[in-house]
Amino acid sequence: MVALVHKNVKHIWDVKDRRFCHPGLDTSNDWTKTFSMYFEYWVIPSECDPNKTLLENRMYTLSNYFEMACVAGPWSADTIFDGQLKSKYKNLCAACDNPAGCYSDDKYHGREGALLCLTEDVGDIAWVRLDDTLVHFKDEQVDKRNYNYLCPDGGTRPLEYDKPCVWLSKPWPVIVASSQIAEKVSRTMNLLKNATFGWETSVLQLMEGYHISPVSTENLETPEDYLRRFPGFMSANNRVTCRPSRRVQWCVASNLEERKCRWLREASVVYGVEPPISCIQEINRASCLDALRSRRADIFVARTEELLQARKKGLKPIIYALSNKKQELNRIAAVVKHDSKFRSLRDLEGAAKACFAGYESVGWNAFVSTMRNASAEKWGCQDTQAVAKFFKDSCVFGLTDQDRSELPANLYSLCKQGEKRDKRMHARRRDRSEREIRANTMCTDANGRHCTRPLNSHASLSRQCDTRCVNAL
């Protein structure tokens, strides 16, 4: 990425109160938020008004710094909020071909549009890709003498010298392998170049159409050394927009969930997702709901059967998955033996023994809802009392000691035979979790902070601590 300026802009401090040409905030595989915001993060002091969202702080900063700009296309996926921001910060669309619209089809939107904005003398500064710049100036026969590269050191360099000042580069995707099998992987990839069918073509499709260019295995680079060859990339994701940094506290209830949360956090940083995610672990899922209620956590991925309990705690869903295909929907059924005398739900009343996967689980709630709709006022207000009255005996799995002290005894009267097995299962899970926690080695990350890393029995302690440490304490 390069910053192009008119020749009358001599230094980086001349940029303020000028006209800015920006490709747009909408992202794609090769145009992430990190690339979009890199120039302004380094040049413009960030605003951190706690009463504004991070996006509005960004637009407010741009609006105050530049006289006008063209930042066409969507600013937010929320069309209402997008319209509100564009009405509030109109000068960020004032340099567009259609300022009133500021849409994605604007003449000055996108990679080519930002260059046209500059070379048609609408703007003074453009944040663009170097390869697009070279093609544009050649195809449009633009006089290079009228433009300069703006350099990260604050100075400028004539465009006609063909020695660009690169602010940020994106590395090509690579295949990463351990040193023990790198040569074998390299030979395999060489064979794939001429593949026309079979599993080899499937591998090529996974490569997303990238051209395979094998490298020598004699002097292999580490991933970190490879990335350091690209200016600005290693530091691009380390910018803190506001201090103190805003974070989304994501509650998890197991070691596996915590690892998944860390993976998601690291991926979100690469794609410029803000605010960043912070993973906090509680002892169980019920504790996560309590953490949300007490504001120690912000979000939690709840199971369907936990929604009722969540609502009782004053919580609400902000997003949920919904299938468009009927065959993919979950179906709830009441199952009896093939030779059972029971033929309808009404036959179960007073005689049947029931088994539920959990209290207020999907099955429990489906049964209660069905019976309430069928029985109207006869069902009663207390679901637990109604279920206990409907069935002779039951086993509702997963009840705590507190639940049992509050619920009718016949809701768990059939569970006694399975209690010992259930306790053994929970004990095994607890022991496994404790072993996972103990199976960590202490390391120090690049900033000198102590942290833990899962112990790998196949690697030495020093080898593990050479790799990037996670889960800083």
UniProtKB/TrEMBL annotation:
Pfam families (alphabetical): Transferrin
PROSITE patterns: TRANSFERRIN_LIKE_4
Record-level GO BP terms: iron ion transport
Domain Transferrin-like: 1-235, 248-473
Signal peptide: none
InterPro entries the UniProt entry points to: Transferrin-like_dom
GO cellular component: early endosome; extracellular space; plasma membrane; recycling endosome
PANTHER family xrefs: TRANSFERRIN
Protein known as: Transferrin
Lineage: Eukaryota, Metazoa, Ecdysozoa, Arthropoda, Hexapoda
